[in-house]
Amino acid sequence: MACMITHVNRNHSLLSQVIIELPYIFVQATSYGVIVYAMIGFEWTLEKFFWYIFFMYFTLCYFTFYGMMAVAVTPNHHVASIVASAFYAIWNLFSGFIVPRPVSTTNLLTH
Questions:
Q1: CA–CA separation, 36 vs 28, rounded Å?
Q2: Would 54 be classed as within a structural domain?
Q3: In this structure, is residue 45 part of a structural domain?
Q4: Residue 18 within a domain
Q5: Section 59-78 average pLDDT
Q6: Is the overall model pTM greater than 0.85, yes or no?
Q7: Is the distance from CB of 29 to CB of 53 less than 8 angstroms?
Q8: Which of 5-9, 13-17, 24-28, 82-86 has the lowest mean pLDDT?
């Protein structure tokens, strides 16, 4: 019985840790999104801005929750930071941030 109560308390604690992050991440994504969207010079339409905030919100969510998972599955936060940095490097490598776009000479000549 005590083991079952401990298991329920752990699940409740985990759920509360996840739920408490959601509004905080939303505030972060919105404040960052407004500043960066304006600095980049994207077109100011409501639909495009909300799509940008949507993707920024979920990107910040998965980075935050991945960090929480890395801390949970490793013995301490020092090992978690090493594991996380290795995975972030692999994610960036295969997500297209490091791969340059090919430059077309026809577009340069026509403008």
A1: 12
A2: yes
A3: yes
A4: no
A5: 89
A6: no
A7: yes
A8: 5-9
The rounded distance, in Å, linking the Cα atoms of 37 and 43 is 9
Single-letter amino acid, residue 24 = Y
What total of structural domains would you count in the chain?
1
- List of residues 6+ apart from 86 with CB closer than 8 A: none
- Provide the mean pLDDT of the chain: 82
Give me 111's structure tokens: 């403008």
Q: How far apart are the first and last CA of the chain?
A: 74
Q: Would you say 25 and 64 are in contact if contact means Cβ atoms under 8 Å apart?
A: yes
Which alpha helices (DSSP H) does the chain contain, by range? 2-40, 46-73, 77-95, 105-110
Q: 65's torsion region: left (phi>0), alpha (psi -120 to 50) or beta? A: alpha
